[in-house]
Amino acid sequence: MSEHIAFTMSGLCGVGGLIGFAKTRSIPSLIAGVGVGALYALSANRIRTGGEYGYEMAAATSAVLLGSSAPRFVKGPVPKALTVTSVLALAYYGKKVYDFRQ
């Protein structure tokens, strides 16, 4: 069940990177979106199969996404949505990591 959030974030980031590239021909948007999406997909797969560090990877990926989107928060709806979803995912996976460590 916990992997669903990471799979959803993977899809959103991947599609977002493709849309950013299609609209503005921005190679950085494409690389960042697909790269972050791939990290979320890898962490979701590790969570689903019981592999090591799946939750930690999802939390770290959320932190990276938050760090890249938060400075652009006021520039429009896409950075706002990325910031909010990354905060929610980081809170969820951070809590999971914390619970496992206790």
From TrEMBL:
<comment type="similarity">
    <text>Belongs to the TMEM14 family.</text>
</comment>
<dbReference type="GO" id="GO:0016020">
    <property type="term" value="C:membrane"/>
</dbReference>
<keyword id="KW-1133">Transmembrane helix</keyword>
<dbReference type="InterPro" id="IPR005349">
    <property type="entry name" value="TMEM14"/>
</dbReference>
<protein>
    <submittedName>
        <fullName>Related to UPF0136 membrane protein YJR085C</fullName>
    </submittedName>
</protein>
<dbReference type="InterPro" id="IPR044890">
    <property type="entry name" value="TMEM14_sf"/>
</dbReference>
<dbReference type="Pfam" id="PF03647">
    <property type="entry name" value="Tmemb_14"/>
</dbReference>
<keyword id="KW-0812">Transmembrane</keyword>
<keyword id="KW-0472">Membrane</keyword>
